[in-house]
Specification:
The complex is a heterodimer of chains A (about 260) and B (about 350).
Chain A (H helix, E strand, L loop, with lengths): L21 H15 L6 E5 L14 E4 L5 H11 L4 E7 H7 L1 H10 L4 E6 L34 H8 L3 E6 L3 H13 L4 E6 L15 H10 L1 E3 H9 L9 E8 L10
Helix pairs in contact in A: 1-6, 3-4, 4-5
Chain B lengths: L2 H11 L2 E6 L6 H10 L6 E4 L3 H13 L3 E6 L1 H17 L3 E9 L5 E5 L4 H6 L8 E3 L4 H18 L2 E7 H4 L46 E3 L14 H16 L2 H4 L2 E4 L5 E6 L2 H12 L4 E6 L1 E3 L3 H5 L6 E6 L4 H7 L6 E5 L8 H11 L1
Helix pairs in contact in B: 1-2, 1-6, 3-4, 10-13
The chains are: A alpha/beta (about 260), B alpha/beta (about 350).
Chain lengths: ~260, ~350
């Protein structure tokens, strides 16, 4: 079997804009699933609302495309009522951090055995480019026409603080690392949170001087550094530029988890 | 036994093995009882972070084939509305218990009311139909909870047990049968499209984990379950089917009792006001006073009204400002007189008798 066999061929082509990073994340996820040897009939994809959340509909397994922000409580019901199922959640920054923020911290606290993959494009893509809780301060969107005046949420740090057993952040540029991190998350009992920074050329890049898809991918390549490296820099008194995003594995631990296969 | 406990016991007897809930007065005893009982019988109890999550969790559990339930009251019921619509659109069987209290808003947490009868019928956005039951005694709390699960599975729809603080906190002696009737969910035949309805307009259920590979979405979808949100005809057909699968079975779902069908003055009740009316009919011993007592309020059993062929007027005591009275007006030519009661107290038999004297 190849990762391509996991696609629901009669649903393609997808709705994503050309240059969107979501397809990369779906590919990485399915490559990880395929490497793990999961069975289709034992796997469920759950998602909320937004571009990211359309992903569940392109996969051949049972899938639940739910209401805005609520993918995690739906997934909680699926996993706790049948722990034999592998449950993966696709979500986005608006879905997870804004309308679904409360569910996010509580799912991490409970440490339910889910793999949560957040496609963080720092914008509401599907509704036309409104600011989200991860839109960087100063960035332009249709609802922050003078630059966002709010600080952005750091979702991975939030997941670490709330208790998830596995947390990693990569970008759609870091395909190999991302695939490995998703696989590691799926193998870790408890809640695994994998945040992927993804480019949204249509609604983010276009308004923020990253007009070409390659500009945004280049930006993610050049403005990311391993979290451990950034920590070392801070410890040694070096100044870390504010626009550098920490990537890598944030935590891997063994807190008691719920809904683990018996 | 307390009404709320009878509800929880009825759910367990009906095979409910998943409860997701959030504490709220006056429903909390149901969650507490499920928290104590479910882990001992290989069931799942989870206290969710809010009512939006509670409703979501029971829908997720239902897709793995579990009978699932939540219980709440007014403010929590309001929070559940969006995901109730999702359950309607995705045809997810589940049971929502609403132990009604005085509203709007925080209102009267410890006092009974029937103010959510229209909300349970129309509270989520868009057009749809649901099933709502209303118990008037602790015995009925048990029996109608069992019935709610069977109706939910048969029609693949959220079913509401619309009780209230009075019956929820009432203590009465009840008979618990050795066995309760259980009508299981009809599975999807392999090779059939997952949202292709049978003759009863209800599709077979493609349980998660059984290899169906079904995509379930709250978007308007075709019979494959695939989103198709811009086709006017497809949307119209889907919504009409979701409504008609309930409305066309109205007489089969109906559950009521009738006293004095030749009467000229007819009380129509559901829930606790039925008890006061029964007392009035007993006390007066007159056969010109009739009583239609509904255990199913939605879909509204309009044919039951026609059984009172000599009726000159319908009196409708409700613990709200006349929500179901207005529905009755739609179906009959005779005058419909609402007898609203707010504040948490039940209509007393004397109050109703005094009302009758004014009318005659």
């Amino acid at each position: 079997m190849s990762y391509q066999d996991w696609f629901r061929q009669d649903r393609l082509p997808h709705i994503y804009c050309s240059g969107c990073g979501n397809g990369t994340v779906i590919n990485c996820t399915l490559m990880a699933v395929d490497e793990l040897g999961w069975k289709e009939e034992e796997t469920v994809f759950v998602s909320g609302i937004g571009c990211s959340s359309r992903a569940s509909g392109y996969i051949v397994t049972d899938s639940l495309h739910t209401t805005h922000g609520r993918a995690l409580p739906f997934a909680t019901g699926v996993k706790l009522s049948n722990p034999d199922l592998n449950v993966v959640v696709f979500t986005g920054d608006g879905d997870l951090a804004a309308i679904g923020g409360n569910h996010f911290i509580h799912a991490c606290r409970r440490n339910i055995d889910l793999t949560v993959i957040c496609m963080n494009n720092q914008i509401y893509g599907m509704t036309g480019g409104q600011g989200s809780p991860t839109t960087p301060a100063g960035a332009l969107s249709t609802t922050t026409p003078y630059g966002s005046s709010e600080p952005a949420f750091d979702l991975s740090e939030l997941a670490v603080a709330a208790g998830a057993n596995f947390v990693a952040r990569w970008t759609s540029y870091h395909v190999k690392e991302l695939t490995r991190a998703i696989g590691a998350g799926m193998r870790t009992p408890g809640l695994s949170f994998i945040e992927t920074m993804t480019q949204c050329p249509t609604n983010y890049g276009r308004r923020n001087k990253l007009r070409q898809v390659t500009d945004q991918v280049e930006f993610m390549k050049n403005h990311t550094a391993l979290r451990q490296k950034l920590d070392r820099m801070r410890e040694s008194g070096q100044k870390v530029p504010t626009d550098i995003i920490a990537i890598g594995e944030f935590v891997r631990r063994d807190r008691p988890a719920m809904g683990v296969r018996r | 036994m307390q009404g709320n406990i009878a509800c929880a016991e009825g759910a367990i007897a009906a095979g409910c093995r998943f409860f997701g809930g959030y504490p709220i007065t006056p429903s909390t005893e149901i969650a507490e009882h499920m928290a104590a009982k479910l882990p001992r019988i290989d069931g799942v109890f989870i206290q969710m972070e809010d009512e939006l999550a509670s409703m979501a969790s029971i829908i997720g559990a239902s897709w793995t084939g579990m009978r699932s339930m939540t219980a709440t009251s007014g403010p929590g019921f309001s929070l559940m509305m969006e995901n109730i619509g999702f359950a309607v659109m995705t045809e997810t069987p589940c049971v929502v218990v609403n132990i009604q209290r005085g509203g709007p808003s925080t209102g009267q947490p410890t006092m009974g009311a029937q103010g959510d009868m229209m909300q349970c019928r129309f509270g989520s956005h868009g057009d749809y139909s649901v099933i709502a039951l209303s118990p008037a005694s602790v015995q009925e709390m048990y029996e109608l909870t069992v019935k709610a699960f069977n109706l939910a599975d048969e029609f693949r729809v959220p079913v509401f047990l619309m009780s209230d603080e009075i019956v929820g906190h009432m203590r009465e002696r009840i008979d618990i049968p050795d066995q309760v009737p259980i009508i299981p969910r009809k599975p999807l035949q392999k090779g059939t499209l997952p949202f292709h309805p049978d003759a009863d307009l209800v599709p077979g259920f493609p349980q998660f984990g059984e290899g169906y590979g079904v995509h379930v979405t709250g978007l308007t979808h075709d019979e494959r379950g695939y989103p198709c949100a811009t086709s006017p005809g497809l949307h119209e057909n889907l919504v009409m089917r979701l409504v008609n699968k309930i409305e066309s079975a109205r007489d089969r779902i109906a559950d009521y009792s009738i006293t004095n069908p030749e009467a000229e003055t007819v009380f129509v009740t559901y829930g606790p006001p039925a008890r006061s009316v029964e007392q009035v009919v007993r006390d007066l011993g007159r056969d010109d006073i009739g009583h239609l007592r509904l255990r199913v309020v939605w879909p509204f059993p309009e044919s039951a009204l026609k059984l009172f062929a000599s009726a000159k007027q319908f009196l409708v005591p409700e613990m709200n400002m006349g929500q179901v009275a207005r529905e009755i007006e739609r179906h009959v030519d005779q005058p419909v007189i609402p007898i609203p009661k707010l504040g948490g107290n039940l209509h007393s038999p004397d109050e109703l008798k005094a009302r009758l004297e004014v009318l005659h």
